[in-house]
């Protein structure tokens, strides 16, 4: 599509609301991580992909001449996602805070340099009518942003629909930001199908996470009530933990399958080496109607007819 030539006031207003939501959406999540000193259930993979997606996201918004709020949006979004990723490294992977901080600062500098360089490289050809580089950047931003949600279904299956580690205030603000950003694109003179689809999917996925947790609350209302009556939290009750443990951990199952395949291969190799050693030591091997003796010293075979 061609770049925007003029931005209606309604698009600027809606884009500003969406940008504000996406600028502050991760603050509740960051505060929660800091308060609990835990990022269990919050995929570091998701945070890193979101932060990385800000690079093509920003390039696309600048070259397409979106309204200013939508241009500022990916910059704030990428920075806060990077902070949340660093928390995952500190609280989940036990990195030293200084290591995570320096790594994050380096990544953000690299992201900023890439974005600035690619904007200057792509914008002149785009103004001459060469559209495929911009389309490619937009598709990359779309793929990175949506692919970041891939760990979520596995986390939900593992916990039988329970959302753990993700702040619901964050989800609500994030969903609102995607919705108002979508409405901002609708209000523009020309609707951007690629980013409109991305915002719509973000809304749908996040609302499905909320719905999944509400269903989990309904399913566990009985055992949660019994745990409360006994003065225990859900994660302290044996009944609750037994119910929760029945979730499907596909990721762990995948690694277990790989480990079994590796062990099986090692076992077959060791059996083969034992058989080879037996042959070299002169062990007798029974075959139909005959027995064969292997002598390592002379390397001759003597065949005896069976009785």
TrEMBL record:
The keyword Metal-binding does not apply. It holds the Pfam family PQ-loop. It comes from the Eukaryota. It is found in: Membrane. Keywords: Membrane, Transmembrane, Transmembrane helix. GO terms for cellular component: membrane. It is a multi-pass membrane protein. This is PQ loop repeat protein-like protein.
């Amino acid at each position: 599509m061609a770049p925007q030539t003029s931005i209606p006031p309604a698009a600027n207003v809606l884009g500003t609301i969406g940008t504000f939501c996406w600028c502050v959406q991760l603050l509740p999540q960051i505060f929660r991580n800091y308060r609990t000193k835990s990022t269990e259930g919050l995929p570091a993979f998701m945070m890193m992909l979101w932060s990385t997606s800000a690079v093509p996201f920003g390039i696309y918004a600048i070259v397409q001449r979106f309204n200013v709020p939508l241009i500022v949006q990916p910059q704030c979004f990428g920075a806060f996602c990077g902070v949340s990723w660093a928390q995952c490294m500190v609280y989940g992977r036990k990195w030293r805070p200084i290591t995570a901080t320096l790594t994050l600062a380096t990544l953000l500098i690299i992201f900023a340099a890439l974005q600035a360089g690619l904007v200057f490289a792509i914008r002149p050809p785009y103004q001459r009518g060469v559209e495929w580089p911009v389309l490619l950047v937009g598709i990359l931003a779309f793929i990175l942003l949506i692919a970041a949600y891939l760990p979520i279904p596995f986390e939900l299956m593992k916990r039988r629909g329970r959302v753990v580690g993700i702040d619901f205030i964050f989800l609500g603000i994030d969903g609102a930001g995607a919705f108002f950003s979508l409405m901002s694109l609708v209000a523009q003179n020309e609707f951007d199908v690629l980013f409109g689809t991305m915002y719509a999917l973000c809304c749908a996925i996040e609302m499905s996470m909320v719905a999944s947790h509400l269903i989990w609350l309904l399913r566990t209302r009985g055992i949660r009530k019994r745990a409360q009556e006994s003065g225990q939290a859900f994660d302290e009750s044996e009944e609750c933990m037994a119910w929760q443990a029945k979730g499907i951990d596909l990721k762990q199952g995948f690694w277990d399958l790989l480990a079994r395949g590796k062990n099986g291969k090692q076992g077959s190799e060791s059996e083969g080496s034992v058989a080879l050693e037996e042959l070299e030591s002169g062990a007798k091997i029974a075959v139909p109607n005959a027995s064969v003796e292997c002598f390592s010293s002379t390397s001759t075979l003597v065949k005896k007819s069976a009785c």
